[in-house]
Amino acid sequence: MVKNVAQESVNQKLQLVVRSGKITMGYKQTLKAIRNGTAKLVFISNNCPTIRKTQIEYYAMLAQITIVLYQGNNVDLGTGVQKESLFFFD
Amino acid sequence: MGKFLKPGRLVVLLAGRQAGKKAILIKANEESTKDAKFPNGLVVGIQRYPRKVTKRMGQKQIRKRTTLKVFIKQLNLNHIMPTRYRLEESTLKEVRDRIERVKEAELKNVEKRKELRKNLRKYLAEKYRTLPAGSLADKKAQSRFLFSKLRF
């Protein structure tokens, strides 16, 4: 399932998860996590290449987990998590 | 949430000589095994797809054109693209039985592997010939996906 969520609330939730939960960042690792069954929610930035985006969405559909299409690019996602690197993450 | 790399899942290979070929996932090892230090899976795939057959062809020709060639491969899960299609229980069980009859150690043996491939090849060809007509949406005919060539 794909959700379009308001940026503010998402950022807050992101902060919370970073502090208290488990995150994996990066395309390869998210695919691994989805395959494993350990991923529960996936964030995809809006400048993610379409093929990659569709692939992640398909995997998530098979695993029946939620995807959030973040309303910002990967740099914004990085800021949301307060890290400096560029990435896609879950 | 849900593990979907279960036995019977139809997959497409993304890398290697058999890239673009469809296969049945027989076993998925999320953690690495001794000889494969990466998350790997054992697949049985179709190397040479059955050809198209028309009404005008005779039985003998049809039989020739509906043979297929099979490969058995253990590969990195990163190089597998899972699909939403699954093999039916009965077919899957047969395929797994035939593979399990050959012990793990023997799978490395070229002769044994050849025999197993022949075995599977015959079985899958028969399955293809007796496939019930129906769309992919029909649960019983999902293996139709396996036997159709992915064109790219």
Oligomer: heterodimer
Number of helices of chain B: 5
Label the overall shape of chain B.
globular
Give me the CATH architecture of chain A, please.
2-Layer Sandwich
Helix segment count of chain A? 4
Looking at the structure, what is the overall shape of chain A? globular
Beta strand % of chain B: 15-25%
Distance between the termini of chain B: 32 Å
Strands in their spatial order, largest beta sheet of chain A:
1-3-2
- Kindly identify the CATH topology of chain B: SH3 type barrels
InterPro entries (chain A): Ribosomal_eL30-like, Ribosomal_eL30-like_sf, Ribosomal_eL8/eL30/eS12/Gad45
Pfam families (chain A): Ribosomal_L7Ae
Domain Ribosomal protein eL8/eL30/eS12/Gadd45 (chain A): 9-84
Protein name (chain A): Ribosomal protein eL8/eL30/eS12/Gadd45 domain-containing protein
Topology:
The complex is a heterodimer of chains A (90) and B (152).
Chain A: E1 2-3, H1 7-20, H2 27-36, E2 41-44, H3 50-63, E3 66-69, H4 74-81
Helix pairs in contact in A: 2-3
Chain B: E1 9-13, E2 22-29, E3 40-48, H1 59-65, E4 69-76, E5 80-86, H2 89-101, H3 104-107, H4 110-129, H5 144-147
Helix pairs in contact in B: 2-4
